[in-house]
Amino acid sequence: MRSIRVETEKRRQDRTKAVLPIRVRGNDVSGNRFEDLAHTLDITPAGARLGALHHALNVLDRITVTYRQRKIEFQVMWTKQIGTAEFQIGVKAMAQDADAWGLSNSQSSASGRERSQPVLAGASA
């Protein structure tokens, strides 16, 4: 498996496990435009780990993630190939938004016990 990582800045916030359906747009390693239906694996206000992408990306590429009616610009910080045709990526938000994912403060700043419970798509806030 191929894994590429940029060691620029360590995570400053705890991850919240969250499986949210998203649409990812950008350019792949060949420079071709793509649009993938994917999902988050975990999120923070400043970034996320995304899974189920079917296009290889370069570290430092910029992508647009759409979740519900929100469009969030991210920079790819690391990539990891899973199997032959699936990728996970770690991304960092280009602009800091305390509620970028549209989750309530209680969900995004939950205590350790609550953070271990995943946030599922369609779950009521």
General description of the model:
By secondary structure, the chain is mainly beta. The protein has a single domain (3-96), classed as predicted glycosyltransferase like domains (Thrombin, subunit H, Beta Barrel). The protein contains two helices and nine strands. The chain has helices at residues 105-108, 112-115, and strands spanning 3-5, 16-19, 21-27, 33-44, 47-53, 62-67, 70-82, 86-93, 119-120. A six-stranded antiparallel beta barrel has the order 3-4-5-8-7-6.
Widest beta sheet: strand line-up: 3-4-5-8-7-6
Q: CATH topology, anyone?
A: Thrombin, subunit H
State the share of residues found in helices, binned by percent.
under 10%
**Uncertain stretches:** 108-116
Cα(first) to Cα(last) distance is 37 Å
Give a short overview.
By secondary structure, this protein is mostly beta strands.
Write the layout of secondary structure elements.
Elements: E1 3-5, E2 16-19, E3 21-27, E4 33-44, E5 47-53, E6 62-67, E7 70-82, E8 86-93, H1 105-108, H2 112-115, E9 119-120
Parallel strand pairs: 2-9
Antiparallel strand pairs: 1-7, 2-4, 3-4, 3-6, 4-5, 5-8, 6-7, 7-8
